[in-house]
Amino acid sequence: MDDEKSRADDARTVHPLLTHLLAAAEGRFAPVDGGCTVLPSLPGGLACSVAFTGHAFVASAHSAEDVLARGADGFGGSLAPDFLRWLAGPTGWIDVVDATLVARGTGGPGLPARTDVEGHPRVQHARSLRRDVRVYGDERGLVTLASGLAGRTELGIEAAPEGQGRGWGRALLRDALGLVPAGEPVFAGVAPGNARSLRAFLAVGFVPLGSEVTIRPGQ
């Protein structure tokens, strides 16, 4: 019962990082001062490091004094490997560093729900980190839509391999934006090395904001 109450309290609480993410989506960024703002842990005890141009935000159970003393700053220090390992602890889990992208929902017809892919790694990964995960798609692939980092609306995609070079990924992404009310921001994290995916997101209107990594600290 206490765990259920804690999860409910987390769901009702707006994490301060969300304010900064939404401001960035509107083109309002933190000052380019090399600074790092330290925020409380994310729901579920997760940590993260989000870097914009010249300013970073770290959500962690560690004190601001300790985070800054470890070299976190807005000029790359907040994503340095040694800092991320310290943030996670010796046994903690560190996700990949993604480019942070944002677009606007189009409020279109969207995509049909899918219930046949619960065992898919993309879906399982989404459920391990995000809340209210919904799965959509068709023969072109699958889309996850969820309450993601700090409670933002977050989209993930897995295009079917047979659609490679046929534009399926971009078409699927365009339709996925219809799942979000027109004008509302929707975020995505894309690994910079996944150039094909990154090109697809950029082609349908996503724009880069910064970079991010999610961490599950060890006990």
The CATH class assignment of the largest domain is Alpha Beta
The Cα radius of gyration reads 17 Å
Summarize model confidence as the mean pLDDT: 92
Please, what is the CATH homologous superfamily of the largest domain? Answer: Gcn5-related N-acetyltransferase (GNAT)
Shape: globular
> CATH architecture of the largest domain, please?
3-Layer(aba) Sandwich
Could you name the ranges where pLDDT drops below 50 across 5 or more consecutive residues? 1-11
The percent range for strand residues is: 25-35%
Domains (count) = 2
Please describe the structure with a list of short key phrases separated by commas or semicolons:
Aminopeptidase, 2 domains, seven-stranded mixed sheet, 7 helices, 10 strands, globular, disordered N terminus
